[in-house]
Design goal:
- The protein has 354 residues and is of the alpha/beta class.
- The chain has a single domain (9-344), classed as Rossmann fold.
- 43% of the residues lie in helices and 17% in strands.
- It is built from 13 helices and 15 strands.
- The protein has helices at 17-28, 44-55, 69-77, 91-96, 98-119, 171-191, 216-225, 245-257, 259-262, 279-290, 314-320, 328-343, 345-353; strands at residues 9-12, 33-37, 59-63, 81-84, 125-130, 143-146, 149-152, 195-200, 203-204, 230-233, 239-241, 243-244, 266-269, 276-278, 296-299.
- It has a 7-stranded parallel beta sheet, with helices on both faces.
- It is globular and about 55 Å long.
- The protein starts with 8 loop residues before the first strand and ends with a helix.
- 46% of the residues are buried.
Length: 354
């Protein structure tokens, strides 16, 4: 390696669920990683300790917030690439505090982009966007109930939503992430930066501390493990495509490793139609996996909730040869194993004896 190649990869939000999995993969292949994280969310300190225990000096953790431009500049200066995942991630929190949501997601992203533009313009930037930039996508009249899931009535959506779908930000979260999404894309066009936007759909897997507001697959599994009543917003027939975090990390690293090909592009990243599942179908899977029935109650739809979203991953596959490898059944099993070891009865007994 030359001196520049040996510089660390900066991961903002690198102690979060996806960020720590990316940091782990990079360190596993011998790369240095600089994590910038404010350690504010539940579980991130545990993820930080996990990374340090596995990789030692290959992982450096800087405790800072992307809303503060000075530590962002300091981190960007020494990085060979930037994976930007730091964000406010809950639609509900964006509705209750849209100003904070904007400052973290939009202003924080602009701080990262400006730091790269002014202080390290050759560093690639890969950004974690969301399928929420597409808004609600289809009206109720354009979906049909088929078994235990909604399906679109138009054959044009058979392969899912492509990057050509019109943007229609819905909810403050959709607006802030959509703003950031467009800034990242435009900094490639206007300033020539090596940026890539990854519009992600329902990533799940180990190290995910799922809550009612974010990380719904882990939240559903955790509810079963802990025998807690689950609240379903809407009717439960809404569909998402689920992507295991190992497949998501593989896609991110493929983009990073082939940045000359990927730069300036926007890619949808999800499990695709073969990994599409409704909330009710997920509950069926969890019941079969755990042998435990989940008690549910229903509540009103939340702002911006999509009755159906499935990712068309063909652009990413064609460009980089990437495709999901982990089925929902296999992925749920891996997540359940981790959650049960962390939150299950055996873990509770160990904590009680400690």
């Amino acid at each position: 390696m030359n001196e520049r190649d040996n510089r660390p990869v900066l991961i903002t939000g690198g102690c979060g669920f996806i960020g720590c999995n990316l940091a782990d993969r990079l360190a596993e292949r011998g790369e240095r990683v600089l994590v910038l994280d404010n350690l504010a969310r539940s579980g991130v300190r545990e993820n930080a300790q996990w990374l340090k225990s596995r990789h030692g000096d290959l992982i450096t953790i800087a405790v800072a917030d992307v809303r503060d431009p000075i530590p962002v500049i300091d981190a960007v200066r020494e990085a060979r690439a930037v994976l930007h995942l730091a964000a406010q991630v809950a639609v509900t929190d964006s509705v209750s505090d849209p100003a904070a949501d904007f400052e973290i997601n939009a202003r924080g992203t602009l701080n990262v982009l400006e730091a790269v533009r002014l202080h390290n313009s050759s560093a690639p930037v890969v950004f974690a966007s969301t399928n929420k930039v597409y808004g609600r996508l289809i009206e109720d009249s354009e979906i049909a109930l088929t078994g235990r899931r909604y399906t679109p009535t138009s054959a044009l959506l058979a392969d899912g939503i492509s990057e050509n779908a019109p943007l229609d930000f819905y909810s403050p979260y959709g607006c802030s992430k959509g703003t950031a999404d467009q800034y990242v894309h435009d900094y490639a066009r206007v300033y020539g930066l090596q940026t890539v936007v990854m519009r992600m759909s329902c990533i799940y897997g180990p190290r995910q501390f799922g809550t009612e507001d974010q990380g719904w697959i882990a939240h559903f599994l955790l509810s079963a493990i802990q025998s807690k009543t689950l609240t379903i917003y809407g009717d439960g027939y809404q569909v998402r495509d689920a992507l295991h975090v190992s497949d998501a990390a593989a896609a991110w690293l493929a983009v990073l490793d082939r940045i000359a090909l990927a730069r300036g592009r926007v890619y949808n990243l999800g499990g695709g139609r073969s990994n599409a599942i409704s909330l009710r179908e997920l509950i069926d899977h969890i019941t079969e996996l755990t042998g435990q029935e989940i008690t549910c109650r229903f509540a009103d739809w939340r702002p911006g909730d999509q009755p159906w979203y499935v990712t068309d991953t063909r652009a990413l596959s064609a460009a980089l040869g990437w495709a999901p490898q982990v089925s929902i059944t296999e992925g749920l099993r891996s997540l359940h194993t981790w959650l049960d070891s962390r939150f299950g009865a055996a873990q509770g007994n160990r904590e009680a004896l400690a």
